[in-house]
Amino acid sequence: MATTYITAAQSQAFDAYTMNQIGIPSMVLMERAALAVAHQIVNSTSFDLNNVLVVAGTGNNGGDGVAVARLLHLNHIPVTIWLLGNRDHASEQTQQQLTIADHYNIPVIADQPDMANYTTVVDAIFGVGLSRDITGKFADVVDAINAAKANVMAIDMPTGLGTDDGQIMGTVVEATETVTMSYNKLGLATDNGRRFGGIVTVADIGIYDPATLTERKS
Ligand SMILES: NC(=O)C1=CN([C@@H]2O[C@H](COP(=O)(O)OP(=O)(O)OC[C@H]3O[C@@H](n4cnc5c(N)ncnc54)[C@H](O)[C@@H]3O)[C@@H](O)[C@H]2O)[C@H](O)CC1
Ligand SMILES: [K+]
User: InterPro entries in the record, alphabetically (predicted)?
Assistant: First the structure.
């Protein structure tokens, strides 16, 4: 069966269709995404789970990351969330995920930690919402992740890699693995995609392609 590759716009359109036309709540899609990522982190041989750092943006990619942190915590894996930005400016779903994480007393830090303390990093900074070059503080965070020895699991896309064309948008996370939602992404099928996305897993999270009204093909 041929693999389907999509763009960021298609990904966002399929999400919207599944939520708004079919009626699956965004938090359900986010939970299914997080379950797929957590499952891969636990079952892959790539990751030493002694101490995990989830680096989360304030968009829904970050929301996925916060949900992954909670799932790892429930799996008795030590995990810390490094939240990049103001919690009050986070998306509705990400704020809800942070409130949930608070109930489990999962530490949420704002300042860069000593990266040498962590054995695995989860890249939940930007996904298909990346819309411009990464600069300033965000670029410094990407550099810190790449300088660390820990293996990296990227959620949906390695932060900084263009979803549609695999262009490096200022800088890019060097991921060991990527779990991308619903369909593979055109940017992951490029030389940069292979180099910075690492091993790619496509997670079926119940997103439907409105054009074919069928489940994900493969
Ligand atoms: N229900 C759903 O929509 C699901 C989405 N999933 C996950 O959501 C992300 C896409 O989330 P979104 O909030 O649209 O965008 P990001 O989190 O990727 O980016 C956040 C935000 O950041 C801003 N931004 C973009 N580029 C830059 C930059 N270079 N510097 C600073 N800020 C930037 C921009 O405003 C973005 O909106 C998707 O990847 C999935 O991980 C779920 O997985 C499934 C359900
Ligand atoms: K990411």
Answer: YjeF_N_dom, YjeF_N_dom_sf, YJEFN_prot_NAXE-like
Residues of the chain with pLDDT under 70: 1, 213-218
pLDDT tens-digit map of 48-94:
999 999 999 999 999 999 999 999 999 999 999 999 999 999 999 99
Name the residue at shortest CA distance from atom 39 of ligand 1: 127
Give residue 74 CA to ligand 2 midpoint distance, Å: 22
215 located within any domain? no
pTM for this predicted structure: 0.96
| DSSP one-letter string for the chain | -PPPEE-HHHHHHHHHIIIIII---HHHHHHHHHHHHHHHHHH-SS--TTSEEEEE-SSHHHHHHHHHHHHHHHTT--EEEEE-S-GGGS-HHHHHHHHHHHHTT--EE-S---GGG-SEEEEES-STT--S---HHHHHHHHHHHHSSSEEEEESS-TTB-TTT--B-S-----SEEEEESSEEGGGGSHHHHHHH-EEEEE--S--BTTTTB----
pLDDT of residue 216: 47
Q: For the chain, how many structural domains are there in total?
A: 1
Binding-site members are 60-64, 123, 127-133, 156, 159
Residue 104 placed within a domain: yes
Residue 217 located in a structural domain: no
